[in-house]
Design goal:
The radius of gyration is 26 Å and the shape is elongated. It has 18 helices and 18 strands. It folds into 2 domains: 224 residues, Rossmann fold; 278 residues, UDP-N-acetylmuramoyl-L-alanine:D-glutamate ligase (3-Layer(aba) Sandwich), CATH 3.40.1190.
Length: 508
C-alpha cells in the first residue's frame, strides 16, 4: 500500500530529517533517484546515454537544485544537459555542480534569449520540470509558462520532479491548465503526494514513481490518504474456505432497475454476483425486471416480499435505474430500516437529496452504527453537498462523510473513498473506459458484494478499505476488458470482473 502525505507533513518530515541528515544528503538522494529514472527513459528509448539531450527547466528553490544535481550526474555520464533557469536566480551549488560536470546553463536575460531556450526544449530527448515543486500552485510566470507550453508541444519525454508545476500537491487542483507541465512520468521524493493521484492532477502526473530519500521515520503514522496496490486486495478476493456455504460467503440484496431501465437491475446484479458472494437476492417489484434478471442469471433468487430486515441479506444495494418517486422512496425506507450495510447509488442518491425523511433515516442509521455508502459522481455530489471546491476532492469527500455520517465514494478520475475517521483512499487504477453507460451500476453491485463478504467489517476504516478494494477491482476489470484497444461496454466490465479477481489472487 502506498501512503500519501500532504505538504505540511512532508515539510515537517524534511525539517526533522535535515536536522539529522543534513540538506546535502536529502538533495543528493533525490538527485540520484531522479537521474536514475532519466537514464532509464533514455535507455528504454534505445538511445545511447552519451547522445541524449536533456533539457532542465529549473526554478530558484530546492526543487530546481534537485534537478540541477541530477543533471550534473547525467552530464558526468556523457549526456548533453542544458539547464534553463526561469527566475532571476537558480540554486547556486546545483548550478555550479552542473557546470563543473560539463553541463550548460542557458540564462534568459533578455527577450532575445527566449527563442533559443524554446529550441533547446523542443529538440531535447527528455525535458525535466524543476520549476516549483510541492510548494507551488496556480499559473506559472513567464518565461516558465512559455517553456512548459513548448515542452507540451514537442516530442520529448517529459519528467516532473516531485510534482508537475501548476498542480497543487495537496488537492490536485490545476488553476491554469494551459501552462501546467504535462508529465509522462513524475518522480516524487520521499513519499506520494495526494495531488498526484486525484483528478485533475493525476492527468498531468503521468506514471508516478517514489524515490526514497529517508523521510519514512519522520512522517506521521496516519497519512492523508492511502493508495491500494494489487497485493493489498488479498483478503477481499480470497476464494471460499473449505467449510464455507452460500450464506457464510455473504448475501447481497439488490433493489434496482425499473420497467424503463431494466438493464440497470441486470448490471447491478452482474457486478454483485461476480464479487465472490454466495448469493444474490433481487427485490422484485413486479415490473418485469426480476424476470430479466433471472433470464440473465438463473442463480439469482427473486424476493417478492418487501425488503425489510431479511436476516439472510448481508448488504443491500439500492438505486440504479429504479426511479425516485414516492413509491420508490417507500421501498428505500424499508431497506434503510435494516441494520446491515446499504449502498445508495443513482436514483437512491436523488431520493437522499430530495427527501428530508430519507436523510434523517440515514443519519439515524449512522448513530446506531449501521453503515450507509453513498456513491455520487461529481454532479450528484454537487447536488448533495455542493460543488467540489478549491480544497479539492479529498477534503470535500471527507467533509461530506462527516456531514452525512456515511462512507462516501466520490467517483471519477482518481475516485476518493472516505469515512468519518481515518485516512481517505484514492483509486490509482481507474480506466478511462469506465466512462460508459452502466459502469456505475456494475460498481454499485461490486461494492455491495465486497461489503457482504466475510472480509467486510463494520468499522469506518475497514469499510473504507473494503469499498476502495471494490473500486480498484472495478477499474482493473475495465482495463482487462479494454486490452488491445478494444472498445467496451458495461457488460464487458461484468464479464471481466472474474479475470480481475483472478489476477489479484495471483498477486497476493
Amino acid at each position: 500500500m502506498r501512503r500519501a502525505y500532504d505538504v505540511a507533513a512532508v515539510r515537517s518530515a524534511e525539517s526533522r530529517a535535515l536536522g539529522d541528515l543534513g540538506d546535502e544528503a536529502l538533495m543528493a538522494r533525490a538527485a540520484a533517484g531522479l537521474a536514475g529514472h532519466i537514464r532509464g527513459v533514455l535507455t528504454a528509448a534505445r538511445r545511447v546515454v552519451v547522445n541524449g539531450d536533456v533539457a532542465l527547466i529549473v526554478g530558484a528553490g530546492n526543487n530546481g537544485g534537485d534537478v540541477l544535481y541530477a543533471g550534473a550526474e547525467l552530464a558526468r555520464r556523457g549526456a548533453r544537459v542544458t539547464a534553463i533557469p526561469v527566475f532571476d536566480r537558480a540554486h547556486e551549488a546545483g548550478r555550479a555542480a552542473l557546470e563543473a560536470a560539463g553541463g550548460r546553463v542557458h540564462d534568459i536575460e533578455a527577450e532575445s534569449d527566449l527563442p533559443r531556450a524554446i529550441q533547446v526544449v523542443q529538440q531535447a530527448d527528455v525535458v525535466v520540470d524543476g520549476v516549483l515543486g510541492i510548494g507551488g500552485h496556480g499559473s506559472l510566470p513567464e518565461p516558465a509558462a512559455t517553456l512548459v507550453r513548448a515542452a507540451s508541444g514537442g516530442e520529448a519525454f517529459r519528467i516532473a520532479a516531485d510534482v508537475p508545476s501548476g498542480v497543487d500537491a495537496d488537492t490536485g487542483v490545476v488553476e491554469a491548465p494551459e501552462s501546467t507541465f504535462q508529465a509522462d512520468l513524475t518522480v516524487t521524493f520521499g513519499c506520494l503526494k495526494p495531488g498526484l493521484v486525484t483528478s485533475p492532477g493525476r492527468e498531468y502526473a503521468g506514471a508516478v514513481e517514489v524515490v526514497d530519500i529517508g523521510l519514512g521515520t519522520y512522517l506521521p503514522p496516519v497519512p492523508i490518504a492511502r493508495v491500494l496496490q494489487h497485493a493489498d486486495l488479498a483478503e477481499y478476493v480470497a476464494g471460499p474456505r473449505p467449510n464455507d456455504h452460500k450464506y457464510s460467503r455473504g448475501v447481497v440484496g439488490v433493489l434496482a432497475g425499473s420497467a424503463r431501465y431494466p438493464g440497470a437491475g441486470v448490471l447491478t446484479v452482474g457486478g454483485a454476483r461476480r464479487s465472490g458472494v454466495g448469493m444474490v437476492r433481487f427485490a422484485d417489484r413486479g415490473d418485469g425486471v426480476g424476470e430479466a434478471v433471472v433470464r440473465a442469471y438463473p442463480d439469482v433468487v427473486l424476493q417478492h416480499d418487501p425488503p425489510a430486515d431479511d436476516p439472510r441479506v448481508s448488504t443491500w444495494v439500492v438505486g440504479p435505474g429504479m426511479g425516485h418517486g414516492r413509491s420508490e422512496e417507500r421501498w428505500l425506507q424499508r431497506v434503510l430500516a435494516a441494520d446491515v450495510p446499504v449502498v445508495l447509488d443513482a436514483d437512491a442518491l436523488r431520493m437522499y437529496v430530495g427527501s428530508e425523511d430519507v436523510r434523517r433515516q440515514v443519519r439515524s442509521r449512522s448513530e446506531r452504527g449501521a453503515l450507509t455508502v453513498l456513491t455520487p459522481h461529481t454532479g450528484e455530489f454537487a447536488a448533495a453537498f455542493g460543488a467540489v471546491g478549491p480544497q479539492g476532492r479529498i477534503q470535500s469527500t471527507r467533509e461530506a462523510a462527516e456531514q452525512s455520517g456515511c462512507l462516501v465514494v466520490l467517483k471519477g478520475s482518481g475516485t476518493v473513498v472516505a469515512g468519518q475517521r481515518g485516512a481517505a483512499y484514492l483509486d490509482p487504477i481507474a480506466a478511462h473506459e469506465l466512462a460508459t453507460a452502466g459502469s456505475g451500476d456494475v460498481l454499485a453491485g461490486l461494492l455491495g458484494g465486497f461489503l457482504a463478504s466475510r472480509a467486510a467489517r463494520q468499522s469506518s476504516s475497514e469499510s473504507a478499505r473494503c469499498a476502495a478494494a471494490a473500486v480498484y477491482t472495478h477499474g482493473l476489470a475495465a482495463r482487462l476488458a479494454a486490452a488491445d484497444d478494444r472498445p467496451i461496454v458495461a457488460t464487458d466490465i461484468v464479464d471481466a470482473v472474474a479475470d480481475a479477481i483472478a489476477v489479484l489472487r495471483r498477486s497476493a
